[in-house]
Amino acid sequence: MPQIDFQEVMDMLSKTDKRRTYPLWQEDDCLAFIARGREYRSEFHLNPSFEMQYSLKGDLHLHWRDAENKVHISHVPEGSCLYQPPLVPHSPRFGPEAFQLVIERKRRPGEVDRFHWFCPSCDHFLHEETFVVADYGADPVSRAYDRFWSNMDARTCKQCGTVMPDK
Questions:
Q1: What per-residue confidence (pLDDT) applies to 109?
Q2: pTM above 0.85, yes or no
Q3: Is there a contact between 148 and 127 (Cβ–Cβ < 8 Å)?
């Protein structure tokens, strides 16, 4: 049975700007990882699994969209946790010195994760990135971000012309 020293993982993640997540385990029915600061996030993730997010250090501001696409923000203070059902568009945002423990179900064969970006001016849908998460250690969030930020057409609103500012 794995025994994890959270402080050791947080210290390791604090010493690098390149890596923001550290997978703790990846089993058939459960994966867990620690994430450091998501202050740069602007997209909404649609995850086919549930998620449980525990604020190890610092506060989480979970931006999420309801069935009518209205944005809400749930505040999760340090020491608290939040359960999120599958397929709720969400955008976890927390400072660079904050850490979250995230537990979710490992993806089943054929399940697709989606990232949606919206115009910062008029909230019009901008772009979707999709992918299959086979290994969370490959940091799929960063891969989706790299594709989005390198695509000026995807970052430009077709409704009002605003260009999503670079992260």
A1: 86
A2: yes
A3: yes
Tell me, yes or no, whether 67 lies in a domain.
yes
- CA–CA gap between residue 10 and residue 155 (Å, rounded): 32
For 35, the domain range is 6-155
Task: Give yes or no for a contact between 42 and 89, defined as CB atoms under 8 angstroms apart.
Answer: no
The residue ranking higher by pLDDT, 53 or 1, is 53
149 by Cβ neighbours in 10 Å (0-12 / 13-18 / 19+) ranks as middle
Query: For the segment 94-146, what is each residue's pLDDT rounded down to a tens digit?
Result: 999 999 999 999 888 889 999 999 999 999 999 999 988 777 667 777 788 88
C-alpha distances in Å from residue 140, one per residue of 25, 45, 93, 158: 16, 11, 17, 26
Dig out the tokens for 30 from the structure. Answer: 């459960």
CATH of the domain at 57: 2.60.120.10
